[in-house]
Amino acid sequence: MELSSIHEYAVQALGSRSGCVRRGAAAGMAPSAHSCRPDRSRLRRTCPRPWVAGLVFILLLVLAAVASPASPKDAELGGERGEQLFARIDEMLAEMSKMTGLEMKRPIQRSIITREQIRDLVESRLKEQTTPEEIRAEELTLKMFGFVDEDFDLAKQYVDVLAEQATALYDYQAKQLYLATWTPEDLQEVALVHELAHALADQHFDLGKYLSKSRGADGDLARSAVIEGQASWIMVEYAMRQSGKSMVKSPLLAVTAASASRFEAGQYPAYASAPLYIRESLLFPYTAGLLFQQAVIEKHGAAGFTEVFRQPPVSSQQILHPDAYFGQRLPTKPRIPKVRLGRGYKTISQGQIGQWDHSILLKQFIGEEEARDLSPHWRGAYYKLRENKASSQAVLAYAVDWSSPERARRYFELYRKICEKKWRPSKVEQNPAGQVVGQSDKGNFVLTLNGRTVTSIEGLPNARLKTNAGGSKTSERQVANERTTD
């Protein structure tokens, strides 16, 4: 399992929450979803991949200029109102076809769904597509990197957040669109547009296959951002055109919509109380994805709606920096440090760690300014997590490449601070090999700087500390690293 499953789960689990970890969102149901597979390890946005759902409701609030969402009672969407909305689907699709050049190929199935049914759907998909062991591995990976606390419950957190926010869903496995009964009246039309955008993309590009072809966690996140970002762009543009505006003519409107959504998200209790990593993983496909789609449209025009599916971005860096996408900058594959452990250890998670993950790590432990300045210089990273169930000991091995030795040294210094905050060592020293070694009751860590690459081994039991660090000969053997496949 991989870190990326988290984002993935979000997408899949809520399908396309019109408003869906890694850790996860647009698949099966279009929230932000990445597949949860044991061999794809990384904060994989653990989400069942059959749907696309997401934080669209936040963007909807921005578009409608609503100070706060209507109460469920006032906003109850009944059968008659639902049928009136659904009767306008052809009209909405015609407008969307003008924007994208994509025509509807077949009728779209649709129905109304209650909040309780949404929660049941999220929970059932989670059980269908992930095992308790996979979820536990995902949780442990998040904890080892320091993204969440020891008592964090990943499955419950995602169900709570997604069920709180989903106003509409698109299930790409069942080819079914759902509109929630509690969707505020002012937002019902644009919420439906977001889901129709997923349905339209699914008819042309098969969202399930599109997501399944990603080769790693960071690629999962990037493809989720394509799916959710495109649907969000279409939704915002549709609303803008109702008032005679357009992001095509005024690109700054896209920045405004993406920025405002962050402010609106804080008013939702389950979302607001979630760890930073979870909050940001849910927002990323919609906000960063919208801005990425804007950049592609500015370069390719309407052809950009097809281009992102035919030539998918491969990393979160390409989403955050479209020039990296246009220039086809590919992530490097640094070698993970070889760890000498005793018997009983098993690899439970491994995979990519992208620029986005590093930006959140730096923001959480160091500060937003450092995260903004340093994370764009990320060039590639991998990790492997092993566990000895008998002793409840987990050991993390991790390597990251940077754009220059100077950037790598800066990260080395900052990651030392991060490890000190995570592990709270009683002793930290630099050995003759230039490694930083920290000793803690919870586990020991060894950090190494080698040119543009920073590596770490964390969680080492005392009996294995000298085997993996200490003298120059030992460290030379340790640097005979192994490449990890995703």
Structural summary, described in words:
The protein is an alpha+beta fold. Helices cover 50% and strands 13% of the residues. A seven-stranded antiparallel sheet has the order 4-5-6-10-9-8-7. Strand 7 and strand 8 form a beta hairpin. Helix 9 crosses helix 11. The longest helix has 26 residues. The termini are close together.
Number of E-state strands: 10
- Cα distance spanning the termini: 9 Å
Overall number of structural domains:
2
Strand line-up across the major sheet: 4-5-6-10-9-8-7
The radius of gyration over CA amounts to 22 Å
List the total number of helices: 22
Average pLDDT confidence is 82
Q: What would you call the structural class? A: alpha+beta
Biggest sheet architecture: 7 strands, antiparallel
Task: Give me some keywords for this one.
486 residues, alpha+beta, Protein Transport Mog1p, Chain A, 2 domains, 7-stranded antiparallel sheet, 3-stranded mixed sheet, 50% helix, globular
Brief overview:
This protein is α+β, with helices and mostly antiparallel strands and about 475 residues long. Helices cover about 50% and strands about 15% of the residues. Strands 4-5-6-10-9-8-7 form a seven-stranded antiparallel sheet. A three-stranded mixed sheet has the order 1-3-2.
